[in-house]
């Protein structure tokens, strides 16, 4: 029984600290500093709810036109990633508890997923926030400095500045602490 418990704890710990490595770069650190290498780019991202997000990245800011003056939790993920799936309940909870101040937007980094497959995934996990998808999501990932592992989460303040970048699984309490700091300003 102890071996089984130890094995489960070890697997969860690995997922927590590593996230899911991208194919282009094996990195398993849980980096939380903001990298200063965002390039200027404009993007139109389709979302599962049928809306289009206009995103502009420049001067270490991520502007989302329809979400100006809102806090944004921008989460890069994939449906096959175990750590991404573990993180979903925290994102759902954040969207519920801070719905007046915050918007969660997930960016799917997966090719060849149909709308139906993405909708089924969202339904299965009770996702209540925006999911963007399509080829432009990969370009956005490059424009924000590259996504070395997933999940990767950006916490964006009301002025479109990057308050925090978290690589790997982000527990609810970790994101909430940053949100509270921004709201107190």
TrEMBL record:
Tagged with keyword Membrane: no
InterPro entries found in the cross-reference section: AhpC/TSA, Thioredoxin-like_sf, Thioredoxin_CS, Thioredoxin_domain, Thioredoxin_ResA/DsbE_sf
Coiled coil: none
Single GO MF annotation: oxidoreductase activity
Highest taxon in the source lineage: Bacteria
Classification via PROSITE patterns: PROKAR_LIPOPROTEIN, THIOREDOXIN_1, THIOREDOXIN_2
Domain Thioredoxin: 34-184
The keyword Nuclease appears for this protein: no
Keyword terms of this UniProt record: Redox-active center
CDD domains: TlpA_like_family (cd02966)
The name this protein goes by in its record: Protein disulfide reductase, TlpA family
Species this protein is from: Aliarcobacter cibarius
């Amino acid at each position: 029984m102890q071996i089984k418990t130890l094995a489960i704890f070890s697997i969860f710990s690995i997922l927590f600290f590593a996230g899911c490595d991208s194919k282009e770069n094996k990195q398993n650190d849980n980096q939380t500093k903001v990298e200063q290498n965002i390039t200027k780019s404009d993007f139109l991202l389709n979302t599962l709810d049928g809306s289009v997000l206009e995103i502009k990245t420049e001067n270490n800011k991520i502007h989302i036109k329809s979400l100006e003056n809102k806090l944004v939790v921008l989460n890069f993920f994939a449906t096959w990633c175990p750590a991404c799936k573990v993180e979903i309940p925290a994102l759902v909870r954040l969207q519920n508890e801070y719905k007046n101040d915050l918007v969660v937007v997930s960016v799917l980094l997966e090719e060849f997923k149909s709308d139906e497959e993405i909708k089924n995934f969202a339904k299965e996990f009770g996702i209540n926030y925006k999911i963007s998808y399509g080829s432009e999501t990969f370009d956005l990932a490059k424009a924000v400095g590259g996504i070395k592992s997933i999940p990767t989460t950006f916490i964006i303040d009301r002025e479109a500045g990057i308050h925090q970048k978290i690589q790997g699984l982000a527990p609810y309490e970790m994101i909430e602490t940053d949100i509270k700091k921004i709201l107190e300003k």
